[in-house]
Specification:
2 strands, two-stranded antiparallel ribbon
Length: 98
């Protein structure tokens, strides 16, 4: 996979994309946006601090999304279990009538 050049916070980085569904340019744009938001909110913060805070914020958002997917999956499993139980009861009822 060829490497691409992206710019994050004014510095050029050569990176290889690990996914075809998300472009590294989109990732760089998101990181730049988050870093800009944090650097504007914290006037006298070093770029290292801004980078660490950005990484923490993005990590937090990622974990929230993962946990949301897990809870959605759990809800789906509970719903499916309930449907299976209803079907089992219906089948038992039909068997008793036959």
């Amino acid at each position: 996979m060829p490497s691409k050049e992206i710019i994050v916070c004014g510095k050029v980085y050569s990176v290889k994309s690990i996914s075809s569904s998300v472009s590294m340019e989109e990732v760089a744009a998101l990181v730049n946006m988050k870093m800009k938001e944090l650097s504007e909110a914290k006037n006298k913060t070093s770029m290292l601090d801004v980078a660490v805070l950005t990484a923490l914020n993005l990590g937090y958002e990622l974990l929230q999304l993962k946990q949301g997917k897990q809870s959605d999956g759990e809800k789906l499993n509970q719903h499916l279990d309930g449907m299976i139980q209803k079907l089992d009861r219906s089948l038992e009822s039909i068997k008793k009538k036959v």
